[in-house]
Amino acid sequence: MINKKVLTIQDISCVGQCSITVALPIISACGIETSILPSAVLSTHTAGFKGYTYHDLTEDFPGILNHWIKEGIRFDCFYTGYLGSSKQIDYVKQIIEHTRKDTSMVVVDPAMGDLGRLYPGFDEIYVNKMKELVSVADVVLPNLTEACFLTGTTYTENYKEEYILQLCEKLRSLGCDSVVLTGVSFKPGHTGVFVMSGGETYYYEHMKYERNCHGTGDVYAATFTGAMMCGCSMNDSAKIAADYTVKAIENTYKDENHWYGVRFEGEIPYLIKMLSVTSKNT
Ligand code: PXL
After folding, report:
1. What's the rounded Cα separation, in Å, for the pair 8 and 19?
2. Ligand 1 pocket, 19 CB below 6 A?
3. pLDDT digits (tens, 9 = 90+) for 62-91
4. CA distance 213 to 235
């Protein structure tokens, strides 16, 4: 039995299959105890719904941290996603500092943009603050858009391997050990994930579906974190997360009414099977 505890810090979008409503079931399905710290509560996510409510929880963070310190609570892994404010990033760094173990892993998904643009409500100040969080990460998990904003690189969808290598190196120079870059495509009809860890690189390619599905970055990051906590290697975790995310997309992309997220739930048994085979061989 695995006895690991993950803290995930990201929003609760009540409806929309993203952030905590994705991370909690996926990491729990991996057999890992999952604690949550909601950065904000929204009626829905912000990508496509109109008139959503937004309740920022930044000012709850110091009290929550003080309580955890008094209780001696510690986590084996921190996995951060969509955060509520720049100030919250300072609090997140304090939470990591005070509730970590020597061996804890920090996974940062700098969830703040896609398709060359920042999500509504994010700006340059937030991007600069996010670089501080990346500097304390063991693994940063951006998409191409986020990688470009974090490194001051011009976003393009027409690139060669050299561009991706430079992006990963610039991200590592911010201070994180490893980069897992999603949505890297070198061939039409295909996309994949590019891993740079130490001096080593690894690329895992898979099918690309033309419809852009929302929430896939969150499914990917949660699965990657769960697999790492199960003892899978970084490259195996990157591959398992890609295969599971692709399955969720395959379950969803033909249904025009299901535009707001991906159906990951039905494939949880497939994820557990991949994990049990891979973690034994890692
Ligand atoms: O999936 C990333 C995400 C998470 N949370 C909220 C979002 C988005 C993307 O738009 O709006 C609230």
Report:
1. 9
2. yes
3. 999 999 999 999 999 999 999 989 999 999
4. 24
Q: Where are the domains of the chain?
A: 5-281
Q: In DSSP terms, which residues pair with 54 in a beta bridge?
A: 42
Secondary structure of residue 1 in the 3-state scheme: coil
- Residue type present at position 165: L
Averaged pLDDT, 147-157: 98
State the pLDDT at residue 211. Answer: 79
**Adjacent-strand bridge partners of 108:** 80, 140
Question: Does 42 sit in the ligand 1 pocket, CB within 6 Å?
Answer: yes
Amino acid identity at 243: D
User: Distance from the CA of 68 to the center of ligand 1, in angstroms?
Assistant: 27
Mean pLDDT, residues 203-216: 90
DSSP E strand stretches across 51-137: 54-56, 75-80, 100-108, 113-114, 117-118
pTM, to two decimals: 0.97
Q: Does domain 5-281 have CATH number 3.40.1190.20?
A: yes
Residue pLDDT, tens place only, 241-278: 999 999 999 999 989 899 999 999 999 999 999 999 99
Rg from Cα positions in the chain = 17
- How far does the centroid of ligand 1 lie from the alpha carbon of residue 125, in Å? 18
Which ligand 1 atom minimizes the distance to the CA of 119? 10
Verify whether ligand 1 is closer than 6 Å to residue 26 (CB atom): no
Q: Does the beta carbon of 247 sit less than 6 angstroms from any atom of ligand 1?
A: no
Report the atom number in ligand 1 closest to the C-alpha of 44: 12
